[in-house]
Amino acid sequence: MIKKIRIFLALALVVASSLVLVPLQMLSMKTGLWPETFILKIWHRMILRALGMRVHVKGTLSTQRPLLVAANHISWTDIMVLGSFADVKFIARADMAGWPLIGMLSKLQRTVFIERERKRSSGDQASEIANRMAKGDAMVLFAEGSTADGNVVMPFKSTLFGAASMAISEGAAQTVFIQPVAIAYTRLHGVPLGRRHRPIAAWIGDEDLMPHLKVLMSEGALDVEVHFGEPVAFSKGSNRKETAKLMEREVRAMMQAALADPRPSR
């Protein structure tokens, strides 16, 4: 009964906040009345509040531009987590555009949707991301190409770093900065999550969205940590595969440190 009440209240909060914030974001995008991420940050925070998630941040988003953020990926909630405090835009898989609420939210923050299976379109997609970075947008790349279970970081795909190479080859920038960022879901109701229970937060592969959303709303009280590493300069002579491996190592080390010694819940 308590879980049903929690789900009802969470849904009510999401719907009420969306009814107010969606028109404001649309107005902001048309008029520039507020910074583009101002309303989005509030919206992300309201969704996290509805889900009962608390965010702990170590480090800061780099001020260097153009900037590509290379992060691990555990769940669709990663977007809300990062978007709740950082001025970033996202690179997401194409099917997310059709998701209820999440798809709308993504479009309202000018997410770049990519179709990883269609190689013919990869050049155009990389070019769009490169142009966005050149204009000053910090773009978040979930470099594993899929979601993991919250216990491990999967290999980073070097092909996904093509936007950095294209920004340089097209003359949009001489150097692109790539910053490693680790996301770790660490506690449930204040108790550290062990390997067995971390997948509660994970949304893996082709799992249906609604059952996972229901689990998160009924459980509540998840703690998530975001750790920012030092950005690395990527230039004309840089190697994509080596850079991908470096980012992977950095993210894995930060994630394991967060899991081994999670910050206190608050």
TrEMBL record:
Matches recorded under InterPro entries: Plipid/glycerol_acylTrfase
Name of the featured protein: 1-acyl-sn-glycerol-3-phosphate acyltransferase
CDD domains for the chain: LPLAT_AGPAT-like
Protein's UniProt keywords contain Disulfide bond: no
Keyword Cell inner membrane belongs to the record: no
Keywords: Acyltransferase, Lipid metabolism, Membrane, Transferase, Transmembrane, Transmembrane helix
SMART domains, sorted: PlsC
Main location: membrane
One Gene Ontology term of the molecular function aspect: acyltransferase activity
Places the protein is found: Membrane
Source organism of this protein record: Mesorhizobium shangrilense
Domain Phospholipid/glycerol acyltransferase: 67-186
Alphabetized Pfam families for the sequence: Acyltransferase
